[in-house]
Structures are given as C-alpha cells and as structure tokens.
C-alpha cells in the first residue's frame, strides 16, 4: 500500500536512529510537518512522519481500518528506513505504537497524550455525556468524525484557550474521518499488553488535555514501569500547541540521555 511519508534530514548525516512519528485520530503526517520535523532535523535528527491508511495522502480506506492495519502501516514504513526507528505516537498513534512495540523491536518509543493502555472506554463515556448527539451520529454513520466536525469541537478537544483562532481553523480544515473499527479495538477488542513491551518508553502528557487527562497518562506510564512527564499550560495537540518546542526539546533531550 502506498503511504504518505514526509521526511526531513539533518545538514550532516548522523548515525543516530531515525525518528518515525505516528499521528492520532483525524490527523495525518501534516501535524508533525508543521513544527516537529523541521525542528528535529535542525537539531541533527533524521525524521519521518507517515499518514496511516486512509489519512492524508495515503491510499486505502479508513472506515473499517483496524488497529492491526495501522500497526502494519507503521511496520511497512519502518522497514524502508536505513535502520529501525524510534517510534513516537500521539493520541491514537500512541495506542498504535504500544501495539507495534509488542511485535517489533525499536531503539525507543514515545507516547504523547496517548490513548491509555486500558483503552478509550472512559473517553467514550465522557463523550456520551458531553456530546450525546455526536455519539448518535457516529452510530448512524460508522465514522468518528462527528466528535470533531466543527471548528469549535476541534478547539475544545485539541487546543489551549490562547491558541490563535486562525490556526485552529487551518488545522481543523486538515482533519478527516476516522475508523469506526478502531474505536472497537481501542475499547475492548485489541488492548495492549504492557508486559510484552521491553522497549524504553517516554510517556508525556498535557496538563490541560481534555481528551486523555493527566490521570490516564500517569496510569499508562505506571503500567510500563516509568513516570509520566506532564507539560503545564498545554492541551492535547502537543505538537501543534504554541509551546510545542518544549515538548520537542524534552523528547530530543531524553533520547540524548539514553544515548539513542
């Protein structure tokens, strides 16, 4: 399957493993290309971001894509790189990375505002209470898009109050549909098994995340035997928020400390 891959390379070649970024629900490789890819390349890292099937400019259908389909997409791209990459996943992408690391080796993994290891059922219950009509539309259309169908919904889900309105509108326009099957997998059909993951993990969250709150990020970190890093004054889309550089710097610093 032809998958969109956006890549940036450092000015001087590096022996360090490349970094492969995996986006979350409704997003695509574009969300990493805005800030993270050029910044990390400028710091000397080879970086890549893929669009999962049915997202961005990738081939395939999104509606019935499963969690294992998305894992296969990451594995397909990882196999084309010069060496196995560090895998970084945001939100749903973090869930994909957790399942990927059960099956494949990597120098390190990073979870950013990830679906927790126990799944997204608490998130679904919050949406049933807060957006009952949107949840009803999901049941009728078998598409998760109704949760973020409007600019206002995207703003509330993904961004801090000080995020410029014009940027929110721009990023919202780039969002797309999301698999209904992935909601089933992430709720109960295909949950991660932390004990199977031996890869060093960095778990990061945002203090003002309305999608996966701090307590869920911290629970995921504990499940993988580590401690969560929580960024203040930041919401869910940590790679697009105004303070994105603090997240990128911490990620790069952690890799450097690990000698990766």
Care to describe what's here?
The protein is 41% helix and 12% strand. It has 260 residues and is an alpha/beta fold. It has a single domain, classed as Alpha/Beta hydrolase fold, catalytic domain (Rossmann fold, 3-Layer(aba) Sandwich), CATH 3.40.50. α3 (67-78) packs across α4 (92-103) and α5 crosses α6. The two termini are 30 Å apart. The model has no long low-confidence stretch (mean pLDDT 96).
CATH superfamily: Alpha/Beta hydrolase fold, catalytic domain
Low-confidence blocks of residues: none
For this structure, the quaternary state is: single chain
How much of the polypeptide forms β-strand, as a percent range? 5-15%
**Biggest sheet strand line-up:** 1-3-2-4-5-6-7
CATH topology: Rossmann fold
The total domain count is: 1
Q: What is the SS-derived class?
A: alpha/beta
Number of strands: 7
What best-fitting shape do the alpha-carbon axes yield? globular
The SSE order reads EEHHEHEHEHHHHHEHEH
User: What's the architecture in CATH terms?
Assistant: 3-Layer(aba) Sandwich
**pLDDT averaged over residues:** 96
CATH class equals Alpha Beta
Biggest pleated-sheet summary: 7 strands, mixed
